[in-house]
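User: Okay, second chain of the day. Same drill as before: sequence in, structure tokens out.
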Amino acid sequence: MNGIIQIVLILFVFAVIFLVRRHDKKKEQEDEERDRIRWRNREQWREKQEAEYNAQRTKLIDRLGECVLDIDLGDYEEYDINTHVMLFEASRIIRIKAQEYKFSDILGYSLVDDATSETITSSTGTAKTSTGSMLGRAVVGGMLTGGLGAVAGAATAKKNISDNATSQTTTIHKYTLYINVNSIQEPTIALKIGNSVSKAQKLAGVINVIIERNKA
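Assistant: Same drill. Structure tokens below.
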């Protein structure tokens, strides 16, 4: 009798293991299918967004001429045309935040770098991190004059380093380009550029060129 009970128990355990494994496998397959559907929907959404962006861009080019500069400031929304700064040199139009401005409407600019720094100090078995902001934010250009200049500040991050410690400091930039335009309602446009040095330099340079051409 005991032998029969043991056999039944063994069969029961194997049945439970089989059912659990089958359930786990089914759940894994369902998760994979959901991921495939989610990825397919995401790709279809991106294709739709890209098609709409290209159609809107084509209309702008047909009306304003060749687009000689197209910089996206939308991070993960690259196909939202309203997050782009677009320059149409032939018609002397710059499109910012879905608004079109004549070159003559651009009066000045300031490029501000509200940077922060992080210092990691490591010694035997320990690591210490301290952060701080930049004391004089780096500024290029003038809101009204458009002239070039630079003011750089020192980092306030603490650096308590012993003789046997090493320190590494990382600076994270946070650029904002302020453009002064000929508008009573919105005289200043703020473009948040983030950590991209190349975009910040490119946009500041382009605005400076527009201002210099306005002087001619």
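The longest helix spans residues 2-64.

User: Thanks, on to the next one.
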